[in-house]
């Protein structure tokens, strides 16, 4: 009767490790490259360059930009407003400030036309009746006067 052969060492039991397998394959690649360089050096160099070329590694995808936030017509209107404010600033000087101030600040007397800027956000709730501070004071007074279960009794 033949006895089954069991592994005698841990290496035999676990098998070949990944790191060992990769090291063995690397050594084989280096040996193949040396043989290829001895036999045909220019072809081996071309092959190495092809593998290391960044163009072949990853193709770039087309650049996708989001749609514009404002239309061309609105952009032209803004440019016209800026040009008009420059003309007005040239004709009349600002009440205070130097030439540098005039160059940095636009003419604020001209306001944008309706539809150029969004409407103001409405208030969250309508304005309350009376003074908010007075209402809080009344609430605190009621809270102070109310009975608590800590007093005991029915």
TrEMBL record:
Q: Keywords in UniProt for this one?
A: DNA-binding, Nucleus
Report biased composition (Low complexity) as residue ranges: 110-126
Region annotation (Disordered) ranges: 1-26, 109-128
A GO CC annotation given for this chain: Prp19 complex
Residue ranges with Basic and acidic residues bias: 15-26
The processes (GO biological process) annotated in the record are:
mRNA splicing, via spliceosome
Question: Is DNA-binding tagged as a keyword?
Answer: yes
Query: Cross-referenced InterPro entries, in alphabetical order?
Result: CDC5L/Cef1
Q: Name one GO molecular function term.
A: DNA binding
Q: What is this protein called?
A: Pre-mRNA splicing factor component Cdc5p/Cef1 C-terminal domain-containing protein
